[in-house]
Design brief:
Layout (H helix, E strand, L loop, with lengths): L1 H4 L15 H21 L5 H19 L8 H25 L5 H20 L9 H18 L8 H8 L1 H21 L4 H48 L2
Length: 242
């Protein structure tokens, strides 16, 4: 439990609490990566996608083809996570483009470099037996997202979809353990599948809504206040320089 809470379970050879939350752990590590390397990530050049891709390919090559047991289980776990982080970094470029910090050409080049690095790293990773099928699906997902991004001005708000988007992270976090366990418990207690499904969906969506309002939103506001204070201090330091 502690290993999962500290995001260290896979480095220690411990299993994830369920079959879903390992993806959320990678997402949290992505947030930490961005927070620690943001000035580098926001530079308009192509150095970071090239360096990041080369590093992740190297890590996976060492983990897969290096000496047996090399830094196991930490190195293989870190190398595998790096593959996913490369793909997630593509989104940083889209954000920069959205706010006017990156040209369309640079966005395309960055995306292609990171996607290529992602594919090459996957091909020499512990999951290489799934190449090119699964990486190809990621590429199709990126293509679909890019199409939606290009047509973003044609979309209109839909209250139900906006609500589901708001609670999507906590919903994803709780649906596996609570949802599957509740569904099985209710069915074993004699409930019909339909009734058990309705109650389980209500419980999961209700809990996700509570987490969104009581934890997620306050945490976001707190983070923004910290960032604002840090920016004020940075501005003050710059202003004091001769």
């Amino acid at each position: 439990m502690l290993g999962n809470a500290l995001l260290l379970h896979n480095y220690l050879g411990q299993p994830s609490l369920d079959l879903v939350n390992w993806t959320l752990a990678i997402e949290l590590k992505f947030y930490l990566l961005v927070a620690l390397t943001l000035p580098w990530l926001l530079r308009p050049g192509l150095d970071y996608p090239l360096i990041a891709s080369a590093l992740v390919i190297l890590l996976n090559g060492l983990a897969t083809f290096g000496p047996a047991g090399m830094a196991a289980p930490a190195l293989p776990a870190l190398a595998t996570e790096g593959v996913y982080l490369l793909f997630m970094l593509i989104g940083v470029g889209f954000y920069q483009h959205l706010v006017g910090g990156l040209s369309t050409l640079k966005l395309m080049l960055r995306s292609l470099i990171l996607l290529g690095g992602f594919g090459a790293a996957w091909a020499c990773s512990a999951q290489r037996e799934w190449f090119p099928l699964v990486p190809g699906q990621y590429a199709l997902a990126l293509l679909l997202f890019s199409l939606g991004y290009g047509l973003r001005h044609h979309f209109r708000p839909l209250r139900l979809l906006d609500y589901l988007a708001d609670i999507s992270y906590p919903l994803y976090a709780v649906h596996a353990v609570l949802g599957y366990a509740s569904l099985q418990a209710l069915i074993h207690a004699g409930w019909s599948f339909e009734a058990a499904l309705i109650l389980t969906l209500s419980l999961v969506i209700g809990l996700a809504t509570l987490i969104h309002h009581l934890i997620e939103l306050p945490s976001t506001r707190f983070g923004k206040r910290l960032a604002a204070r840090w920016q004020v201090r940075q501005d003050a330091v710059v202003a004091e320089r001769p």
